[in-house]
TrEMBL record:
Phosphoenolpyruvate binds at residues 7, 106, 154, 324, 365, 390. This is 3-phosphoshikimate 1-carboxyvinyltransferase. One of its GO terms (biological process) is amino acid biosynthetic process. Its EC number is 2.5.1.19. It is found in: Cytoplasm. Its main location: cytoplasm. The keyword Amino-acid biosynthesis applies.
């Protein structure tokens, strides 16, 4: 089962390639709304991103954006909205960032605070701590700073990526962190582009000096793969995803371990992962702080377990494309399932779902997760199937073909 490229890795690779000295080729980046927003953003800033073939070629500009006055529209992509201001801040000019209503609602305040602490002029033109924002950039000196990434790791990733572009480097003391595996992706990719960040307790020391261009193949997206692994687990079928194995960078591959604890047969090979449904799915209590993009995947198959499924420590799913704890609870109730939620947890009782329309709230993960549920429940419909375009525009075609093949 071929899964499209990782959104997170594509976004980071675009940033690193744009900032690097030389020309970078990205092997099979993800083609989706989020990554196109990122690439379009770079183009608006005056970077050369050639997207004529399945591999993209980026001409790096270590000196910063070619434009000295530009507007960047980030659509729904938090990666673009949170990483690109750091890239331009190290350059020179006036750069305005705006985004969709959905992304305008999501927080960027810790990033603004971090950039301002380094002397960068960041202005919120409507609501403090939210897009739209303007960066009036004149390079960054660098130095010591504190960063609170307890609402999103993306704030830390943004500052790590920008660190080598500062004159003196950055020493970032992290005061809170969620989604920690995403920071590991950032650090591993920075190494591939020639920058070694040193860990010193809670402080990350980022040296100055910039990035080196390279050739970078993009891993398949582990969060996207979760829908197909979950599908196998609830149907007794088998799914193998090549390109995601023991050496994978993405923490979200850890979702298969949750399925394994629930009774699915899981094999993580050197360069592929297989999940086989066994007909058994036990209830579970699990902490998903590290892999919370897969919380809706688990919530959507939880009714088929033989006991309650309790997912803990996922507060920050409330500030994603929608309030995902609330959206999962609401949709499970529409399906006739008993659910309880707290500030940072959800508990789902076993049951036999009834037909219903799913309210996607324009959230690709709600749409894809409850599509998995529909393998076992006739007449589940989505109010906005097209919202999957954020990370996987072809999802319904691919999922439909699999459903046909499995005869579900
Ligand atoms: O850095 C990244 O690429 C991402 C980090 C995670 O966000 P949070 O750190 O906000 O949880 C994840 O949910 C998002 O889909 C992608
Ligand atoms: C939270 C997500 O996206 P973003 O990169 O916009 O935060 C997601 O893809 O589930």
């Amino acid at each position: 089962m071929a899964i499209p490229g990782s959104k997170s890795i594509t976004a980071r690779a675009l940033f690193l390639a744009a900032a690097a000295d030389g020309t970078t080729v990205l092997g099979r980046p993800l083609l989706s709304d989020d990554t196109e927003a990122f690439a379009d953003g770079l183009t608006a800033l005056g970077y050369r991103v050639s997207r004529d073939t399945a591999d993209w070629t980026i001409t790096g500009r270590p000196e910063g954006p070619a434009a000295d006055d530009a507007d960047v529209y980030c659509r729904d992509a938090a990666t673009a909205a949170r990483f690109l201001p750091g890239l331009v801040a190290a350059g020179h000019g006036t750069f305005r960032f705006d985004a969709s209503e959905q992304m305008r609602r999501r927080p960027v305040a810790p990033l603004t605070a971090a950039l301002r602490a380094l002397g960068v002029d960041v202005r919120h033109t409507e609501r403090e701590g939210h897009l739209p924002l303007t960066v009036v950039a004149d390079g960054i000196k660098g130095g010591d700073m504190e960063l609170d990434a307890s609402l999103s790791s993306q704030f830390l990733t943004a500052m790590l990526l920008a660190g080598p572009l500062t004159r003196e480097g950055l020493n970032i003391t992290v005061t809170g962190l969620v989604s920690a595996p995403y920071v590991e992706i950032t650090l591993a990719m920075m190494r591939r582009f020639g920058v070694h960040v040193v860990r010193d307790g809670n402080t990350l020391r980022v040296p100055p000096g910039g990035y080196r261009a390279t050739t970078y193949p993009i891993e398949p997206d582990a969060s996207t793969a979760s829908y197909f692994f979950a599908a196998a687990a609830i149907t007794g079928q088998e799914v193998t995803v090549p390109g995601l194995g023991a050496g994978a960078l993405q923490g979200d591959l850890g979702f298969v371990e949750v399925l394994g604890r629930m009774g699915a047969e899981v094999t993580i090979g050197a360069d592929a992962t297989t999940v086989r449904g066994t007909g058994r799915l036990t209830g579970i209590t699990t902490n998903m702080r590290d892999i919370s993009d897969t919380m809706p995947t688990l919530a959507a198959i939880a009714p088929f377990a033989d006991g309650p499924v309790r997912i803990e420590d996922v507060y920050n799913t409330r500030v994603k494309e929608c309030d995902r704890l609330d959206a999962c609870a609401d949709n499970l109730r529409r399906l006739g399932i008993l659910v309880e939620t707290g500030e940072d947890w959800i508990e789902i009782q076993p049951g036999v779902p009834v037909p219903a329309e799913i309210g996607t709230r324009r959230d690709h993960r709600i749409a894809m997760s409850f599509s998995v549920t529909s393998l076992r429940v006739p007449h589940i419909t989505l109010d906005d199937p097209a919202c999957v375009k954020k990370t996987f525009p072809e999802f319904h075609d691919v999922f439909g073909a699999l459903r046909g093949e499995w005869d579900f």
